[in-house]
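Troubleshooting log. The previous structure file for this entry was overwritten by mistake, so regenerating from the original sequence record. Sequence copied from the archived sheet and checked twice against the printout by T.R.
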Amino acid sequence: MAPATALADRIVACRKCPRLIEHCREIARVRRRAYRDEEYWGRPVPSFGEKNPRLLILGLAPGAHGANRTGRVFTGDDSGTWLYRELHAHGFASGPESTGPDDGLLLRGAAVSCAVRCAPPANKPTAAERDACRPWLVEELATARRLRVVIALGRFAFDALQRAWPAAGLPYWDARPAFGHAREFHAGNGSHTLICSYHPSRQNTQTGRLTRAMFRRPFASARRILENRS
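Regenerated output below.
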């Protein structure tokens, strides 16, 4: 049985995947030139936001020089710039930028998480590493009693959510979900909604596969759904 400490503390203390722990530490040791004077986090990264959110945003994994540097998920890289701008625009964040744990940013009715909690080499976790991290997501889902909407950023997060969802005791989807940008799926006769989105990675945003207008749609839908259920 897991020790009776906060979930975030147990995530930070996790050492299940030696390859990932070694990679996080090595990145923190070498550092990127632009951040050579900063002390990197270099450990598993817990979720950020409310402990019992109505909206959960799920990504792939911490960025090597983003969350692995700052210690806050989706913080310190371009993906986070895109994400927090939309969270603020739709009333889920107190400000449009996330720079680090001491910036005073608060999330409102929302939390941001990742399917894998350590920065993986080449941003590609193995299947075993994905599965080792799943219990953290299952616990988050099972304890989020107010949860109504999940936005899955990218196919990896989408697939991880599909595996964790039934294990958390949540209701079956009314129709089998299939990934596609801005697609919505419902469970429990509308009690829960999954919204899919392309991940705001540079690979997607710099090629035009994901535009700001496209990225706005999932968050606008989440706000509309939550307002209709309040």
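Residues 212-229 form the longest helix (18 residues). Archived copy saved in two places this time.
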